Structures
1.
Amino acid sequence: MCMKKFSQYLESHFFVSGIIIFTLLFLPGLSGCGDKQPFTFSVAADIQYSDKDTRINRHYRESIERLKDYVEFLNNGSHAFMIQLGDVIDGYSDDANRSAGELEVVLGVLDKLQIPAYHVVGNHCMSAGEDVLKTSFSLDRFFYDFSFPGARGWRFVVIDGNDAGYGIVSEGQVKWFRSVLIDAAANDERVLVFSHYALLREAAANHRMAQPDPLLEAMDETGNVAAWFAGHDHAGGYAYRNGVHHLTLKGMVESPVNNAYISVELLDDMIRITGYGDETSRDLLLE
């Protein structure tokens, strides 16, 4: 081989080697720059606004200001959606029109959201009337399920805890719930459930679902529910049962200074809860 050809060979050889070394050393790190961000949404419970004086640590009037702060937080963030867990108003059992008027005040704030909002109906919400709630929340019924772009492998389910009475779910809704869980399992989807009422005493020491057993049995059968989010018991709480995390959020109406809400990140091996204000942060490991 002449010196000229040998020189060309060396240049070509070292050029190719350099590319290989660069690829091995640097491209794996660079590829991480384009990793998909975790799917994130937000949850709040028991806004319970009303034009009433504070009673039993429930700051009814102040809660609308905390809701405004929450909406501003969401509009400056990167959440895919928010869901409220019921009792957006305190309401008046003897005055549906007045309850509906206060619902309009809350919706006037929520209308400023730049992300989708989903709704759970609580017992206090019912004071505004079923038809008013369906119109206000754009719902045909108060139990439903949905999927969301970017949350592949997850199903979101909303429970109506009052369709057969206070804290009681009808047989028809339990049948529907079971069918949704079966369908989600067939599609290899984990399920997150949102309800006004917690199911377990350990997760809500003071107030919870009156008849939780049919729902617990349905979840035990399929084994694909990852977490149950609830409100109603303003003190909040947490419990773990048969692979399901039961998380009860604190009431915004009882957090007049610090507020109370969470961000939820869906990761491969856990659900990461970031608490704001009086809420607690925690990592919920997935089985």
2.
Amino acid sequence: MGCQTRSPQPSLIGFADRLGNLSYRYEYPMKLVLIITFWLTVHAVGQAEEKAVTIGLIGDSTVAMQSGWGPAFAGRFDSRAEILNYAKNGATLHSLSAKLDDLVALKPDYVLIQFGHNDQKRYDTTVYRDHLKSYVTRVKNTGGKPIIISSVTRRSFDENGEIVAKLVRNEKYSYQATLTDYANTAKAVAEELGLPFIDLHSASTAHHNEIGQKESMTYNFKEGDITHFNRKGAEAITDLIIEELKTVVPQLGTYLGGKGE
């Protein structure tokens, strides 16, 4: 993300003084008023163009710094945008609740929320829905605008070479429902509450079906890891997010300007 820089502004007082001298010498008071009005308008527009935005991210390891799409997402914005990544490996909506409080205390303008991968191992979609609604309420209560994102798919392919949402039940995990079920719940919450929604689950599923299993494996954070991303994978998933973000929250499109934009 680029450094935040600000071009030096001419002194308004010095400018007005110079114009005042001209007015006194040539007795053009109306012209002076018009020039000052024009200068102030230009100055105000310049200030508006420099307005910063703060975007919070909260989610699990597929968003987090080490092996998620969060760092690639941050790299797409220009110097006016600050990205606060509060995602954490292994997190659920329930386990990261206190971190959300820390994030909203910083008064971000927007908060992108993506959970599901670990929630499905611990509670059903009804509990997930209630926790997600709590997140939305707390973001709104501090003046932020929540944006719900459905979980990026795992890169699990069936015998026909298509992405499949598996229901894993073994000694280690007992999934309460498929990841698609949690993605559909996230969509339902967004629709019920009238919130911007990025259907990353559907977009990423379609993307991997299009490029195929062999190419999808080049996104793996490490060999055999079909959940997390290396840099190539993170950039590809970020492409999908940004494409939808431009539609559901077009205001944020004005801050794009980093790598790939």
